[in-house]
Write a structure and sequence with these properties.
By secondary structure, the protein is α+β, with helices and mostly antiparallel strands. It has two helices and five strands; from the N terminus they run βαβββαβ. Residues 1-73 form the Ferrous iron transporter FeoA-like domain.
């Protein structure tokens, strides 16, 4: 399952980052690393971007980038 598939209000744990190069590095710099708990707060009206709660703060992430993050419930 990927982060893009988690429903609103759903919590999950990051298992693996599958992005490449700069995208993967940017996601890691935002605090999304293996073992991190992530909560999907809301999704924009057209489905992109996602608003997430990570490590005590909120951030927005494009759905394409969220699809590169494997998670488990």
């Amino acid at each position: 399952m990927t982060l893009a598939e988690v429903p609103i209000g759903g919590e999950c744990t990051v298992v693996k980052l599958t992005g490449d190069g700069a995208v993967k590095r940017r996601i890691m710099d935002m605090g999304i690393t293996r073992g991190t708990r992530v909560t999907v707060i809301k999704v924009a009206p057209l489905g992109d971007p996602l608003e997430l709660a990570v490590r005590g703060y909120e951030l927005s992430l494009r759905k394409a980038d969220a699809a590169t993050i494997e998670v488990s419930q």
